[in-house]
Amino acid sequence: MSKIVASLWMLTVEQLRDRIGSIEPTPGGGSASIVAGTLGVASIHKGVVVSLKKLAANSARYSSLSDLSSKTSALMSVLSELADVDSRAFQSYLEASALPRTTESEKLVRQDARQTALVRATRVPLEAAIAMGRGMKFAEEGVGLVDAHVRSEVLTGVILLRASIRSVLLNVDANLSGISDASLRDVLKQQRDKLERDAVVPADTVASQIQT
What we know:
Layout: H1 13-20, H2 29-52, H3 60-97, H4 104-142, H5 151-176, H6 182-198, H7 200-211
Helix pairs in contact: 2-3, 2-4, 2-5, 3-4, 4-5, 4-6, 4-7, 5-6, 5-7
């Protein structure tokens, strides 16, 4: 079984790369996607804080950027935690799958544990996609506020976030067929589809503003 680290963020970049590229089950694609999304928000945050440096503290633009800086900073923390939560959720599913199944009673316990863990491992990437969608909105808000020479940082963040949303939702796709509750499966599928659709508009808006 994979050795779980206290936090992916305690690893060096080299160690994280090597763990993701290893045969260990965690961190997998979901956590990697959330890490990438976190870096996307960090890029947006960079554009904001650089733009704040030379502004007068009493200006309206300073106030807007300062508020946005607080929101992007908080979102980085949320996504950082979700990257770890995603790895733990999948580890829980692996542990449930490894439960004994000799007797009928053991089989029922294992089945219930696997379903609980699988639903959790599906909800976490959805939660991450929702958070990354907020990052897209922050970029849409900030692209007209940041200095021209750091608008590319905002666009970089948007591209990373858009790709991360699409990739983290692949984990949802992989899990849905294993969820036995058909009504819950349908609800989660609808949430997944809406999140993918909603990621398109902010990205196009930011790109068009940077190009003009």
